[in-house]
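Journal club side-thread
Mid-discussion, someone asked how the predicted structure for our own chain would compare to the paper's figures. Pasting it here so we can look after the session.
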Amino acid sequence: MAKDTGILEGWAVVLGASSGFGAACALELARNGLNIFGVHLDLKNTLPNARKVQADIEAAGRKVVFFNQNAADVDKMNRALDKMQEVMAESESTQVRVLLHSLAFGTLKPYIAGNPEDAISPENMDMTLNVMAHCLVYWTQALVRRNMLREGSRVFAMTSAGSHRVFPNYGAVSAAKAALESHCRQLALELGARGISINALMAGLTITPALLKIPGHEMLMEEALKRNPTRRLTTAEDVAGTLVALCHPAAGRINGATIACDGGEDIV
């Protein structure tokens, strides 16, 4: 299949590339000109989906390299980055044009429970915050140190209304989303002079594997449909299109923002 005509050149690093927002954004970025490095964590039963995403990217005429590993493991991160640099050295570009954090792996436990063993533990909290928030900082640091992120690069992180709304059993994830948005603002301050922008994308309620793991997600979907002015749920493809639009050179002044891609759901 011939390459699509894209507006972008270089590479993207997508954390959480095998499903949901990460998969949709990886494919849309590929259709618009970027080669894709994907980091994901899949076991045998979900690995076929990761392979399908890779095949779809290749069908768009782009290079793709996936790493099946824990994105929050710093040692594994650095080994993956070593490999990425080797691959990029053989290509026409050594710049990571886009970094996307779309990791959805955290604890869905209450803070308070009748049985103390059912309540969230310090280990649960630390893991959730590390994967869903803090590792954005560590990947960004590493890419800047290696001069892979530089002028014109864009960094995005997937957040949600959970950063400022409360749901049962969502406390640790909510805290992670709030921290993620804060990290984006701080990184925007520190990277602005380098010509690197960073923004959080707040999707509306979207049917993804992560949503389906939330207890009571059916009720969340019903409420979102009632509130959303568009009378439909957001799709991963909606978010992917928004992300690519924000990669356009004319959007370079958007920095440090939390941008809603939800059809107005959060304002109702």
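Post-session note: The chain has eight helices and seven strands.
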